[in-house]
Amino acid sequence: xxxxxxxxxxxxxxxxxxxxxGEFKREVIEELTEKNQFPEALWKKxxxxxxxxxxxxxxxSGQDLGLLENALVAEAxxxxxSTVGAGLSLSGFxxxxxLRFGTEEQKSTWxxxxxxxxxxxxxxxxxxxxxxxxNVKGTTAVKDGDHWVINGSKNxxxxxxxxxxxxxxxxxxxxxxxxxxxxxxxILVESDRPGISISDVGPKTGFNLMHCADVDFSDVQVxxxxxIGKENRGFFHASDIVCENRILIAAQAVGIAQGxxxxxxxxxxxxxxxxxxxxxxxxxxxxIAEMAAKIEMTRLLVYKAASSCDAGPVDPKIASMAKMCAxxxxxxxxxxxxxxxGGYGYMTEYEVERYYRDAKITQIIEGSCETQKDTIADAxxxxxxxxx
Length: 388
Ligand SMILES: Cc1cc2nc3c(=O)[nH]c(=O)nc-3n(C[C@H](O)[C@H](O)[C@H](O)COP(=O)(O)OP(=O)(O)OC[C@H]3O[C@@H](n4cnc5c(N)ncnc54)[C@H](O)[C@@H]3O)c2cc1C
Fold this sequence. Notes:
Elements: H1 7-23, H2 26-35, H3 40-48, H4 67-80, H5 82-89, H6 95-101, H7 104-115, E1 120-124, E2 140-144, E3 147-158, E4 164-172, E5 184-190, E6 196-200, E7 212-223, E8 227-228, H8 234-270, E9 272-273, E10 276-277, H9 282-311, H10 316-341, H11 352-362, H12 369-383
Parallel strand pairs: 1-4
Antiparallel strand pairs: 2-3, 3-7, 4-5, 5-8, 6-7, 9-10
Helix pairs in contact: 1-4, 4-5, 4-8, 4-9, 5-8, 6-8, 8-9, 8-10, 8-11, 9-10, 10-11, 10-12
């Protein structure tokens, strides 16, 4: 059993770290975070360097690599900056639905635009009243000749703004399906279709550079050929993709934890208290040791989850374990980082409070800690033949 990344994987980490060092300039990030502006120039540069859609096929402007490599990119970007890193690594959100289930034509039309930094992609799954339950009811797609007619509303759709290229919309396509999960489909809706209206969700605690909107679909018509994967299998396709996305969010969480830790480490090595450096107090040493151990533990779990997903088929239990543990570690490490910086930790200038705010959302999107535990327990208890 090997725990080492391969040379090409280490090279990817190195390349992203160099990009971060050269491009994530303090004044640029301060301006972006002050204005809550999507980091468009940084995104385009990251796309030019091949960091967006690294897991797409080469024919679609990717590098034919896997989720593990994509996770390494997300981690390094979020270590560099939690808010910019999250924005860049989620710029192709939900594109994996096309990657895994799309036709060759759908893939070759849309994936290059995402990888080349031409458009952002959106996944419109959540509805009010459904929350984490993908068995949605409120958005319907009804056939009319060779078109779907889509009606309904989706909540909290990230990337939904001026740069959005398309929405992957989870729609009910068979009203009387039994069970109900057999009546949903994923449909690609181009963002310039008539009948789409978006309204920004308003100020957020973290992930502040990303657009996030509620999206209404009113008699939106798209060709039946925009269906992704099998008709009425959308619930299952979306569930698979959610697992993959959980691992990506977990990788972001590892990066956020590392970034907060790095800043705290550098601070305690320079701050003097009572004639000694803060790092020379045993309390501080133990805090640093615990933070580093948490990051290392969760990193291993996330890499394992990503590698096993690449080897296939995706294991929901491991994906949920990685998401649950890494996102909790990110919160705990960022919290401790603020504490180590004392009053300065609470000031925006020192950045760790922003890492803490960005860490929090990783515990909510793509399934909360509570729902991850459900997934893990379901897998474990069913294996032992128990009935929950
Ligand atoms: C910044 C941001 C970006 C987002 N981006 C997207 C996006 O791009 N696309 C998209 O489709 N959605 C997106 N979401 C939506 C996100 O996935 C939802 O917020 C999430 O699905 C939870 O839904 P909810 O907010 O209705 O919470 P609820 O489902 O109401 O959950 C509330 C609480 O109840 C708990 N709970 C729920 N079900 C159970 C259960 N079975 N057992 C025990 N406890 C439970 C939860 O853990 C949570 O603590 C985003 C949300 C945010 C805040």
